Amino acid sequence: MLTLKHLRVIEALNDSGSLTRAATRLHLTQSALSHQLVALEAHYGVALFERSRPLRATPAGVRLLALAQEVLPKMEAATRDLTRLAEDNQPGRLRIAVECHTCYDWLMPGMDAYRAHWPEVEMDLVGGFHTDPLALLHEDKADLVIVSETARHKGVTFSPLFRYEMLALMATGHPLASKAYLTARDFAHDPLITYPAPDRLLDVVRRVLKPAGVNPERRLAELTIAIVQLVASRKGLAALPAWAVQPFLERGYVVARPIGKNGLWSGLYTAARDSDASRAFHRDFVDTLREQAFMTLPGIEPLGA
Amino acid sequence: MLTLKHLRVIEALNDSGSLTRAATRLHLTQSALSHQLVALEAHYGVALFERSRPLRATPAGVRLLALAQEVLPKMEAATRDLTRLAEDNQPGRLRIAVECHTCYDWLMPGMDAYRAHWPEVEMDLVGGFHTDPLALLHEDKADLVIVSETARHKGVTFSPLFRYEMLALMATGHPLASKAYLTARDFAHDPLITYPAPDRLLDVVRRVLKPAGVNPERRLAELTIAIVQLVASRKGLAALPAWAVQPFLERGYVVARPIGKNGLWSGLYTAARDSDASRAFHRDFVDTLREQAFMTLPGIEPLGA
DNA sequence: CAATTACATGAATTTTATTCATACATGCTT
DNA sequence: AAGCATGTATGAATAAAATTCATGTAATTG
Predict the structure, then answer these.
(1) pLDDT tens for residues B69-78?
(2) Which domains does chain A have, with CATH numbers?
(3) A144 vs chain B: nearest CA distance in angstroms?
């Protein structure tokens, strides 16, 4: 009666603290999870979670959580071994190209985690920034690129990683801090501090400022910490991923506000040649990246196909 | 895609060496198992068993077997803990009464295995033999009795353990050893050596000799080894469970033959008061007994409800 | 080389899981 | 306190998956 599916549900419930969030994470409806949980609890005659917010595991829930943490990794390791036994053991190679500056924050831990499972796969980072990263796939200069848009493209498979919110950053006590969220024209009067990247890759510019015809003075900085520093010293505004600025917000260095009423959300995807994307070591890399991101980055959300 | 069910199937296949036997052991049809195995192998693109007789695990099969042996005990331990958390922790008691002499052979190891899982359950053997063991349940002198027949009985739950073959034992070189199997009249001319138990409990007498009106001279012995000794010294014939005589046959001390064309098969069951039989520690005792028996006794078969 | 035994397979059936459409509960805002 | 917003529960409908049934096919044995 107790199945692996149940263990995954329990893990997701504990991580996310809510049926609804756990459901989206597992690509199921809230209803499905509710049925499952109720059925499991009824079968053993024991409550697994207190229906509080957030959900809290009972002793029985904790017991199953421990089981899940023991058993699920073993299952995954075994299926990996199985796919390895199945494939013609030609070793894999992953030359990875990255479009966005902040991506290194989570890419490095992801690559480390992956290396533990697939030591035989040779990983490389393709240096520099590129005008057309997808071309790298066709030119066989990269095997996997991380991009912020999915355009159907012959011979290329895209896989969603996650979506995240871009927040507007300003100095503490900045007049705009009194607003609940910023709009395009709020950016008109302060310099905008960005990475040295083409506008095409700067979501605020491309999706908010340019459509509104707002074109503030610009200032460049290479590193996230440098951008935050400049904002804190009242040199201008910036827009950065929520996860990247989280630590600075907690220490009160700067203030962040959503961009637009519903916030400005961006997605990240991997792209790979079809022939590579279907291979197990490739798929597992994407899965590992996604999992690692959800474990370490606060405030990110699942991203549908 | 890989589920616990698959792991159980793979374990059963490896133990039994055949889809058909594994299927009966799992209370499924051969067809169901074939579908499962084929689907699993197709999904990972790898063979798990060579279709030889007996079935032999491939490297991939061995890998999953290792997984099963790691994971399944953990699952069982967790469900036990769950039922313990569920029940009002009144400690259980198991006073066990046994009808058949040879039962101690497998009962003791079974009790040992059970003690490891349920240390808090107090186990006792109710000594001596009893004319009506079921009465012990009503008189509250025993909590579980092991019997060879199931009669519906108000307030008593029977659970099947296994079935086994009774073999006729004779000295090496005995004239009857030339027959493929023995019939009732073959017993007429030699003394019959039995345990000191009422005829009702001696399956050969009750189900073969008495119906045929055959009534040989009798001789008694307390211990299995003593019975075998007497048979070997040409003092008479005996009928004992196949599993009990297996070691003596292997060493050539005596010879065994089936009784009747299809053999003489007996079943064993547990009986307990309904109120007890539904409790987790009780059900788990019966499961442990059954499992232990199948692990240690050669030639026994599953027994339907 | 039958006869037997065991595995595979397609279609039908049963069982189980999931969704859909709501109802119900809880907390927050005005 | 009424009205939203958010989150969980539930019954019925639907979809998906597992199992059986009824065979066919392959391997094994006397």
Answers:
(1) 999 999 999 9
(2) 4-86 (1.10.10.10), 93-162+266-296 (3.40.190.10), 164-264 (3.40.190.10)
(3) 24
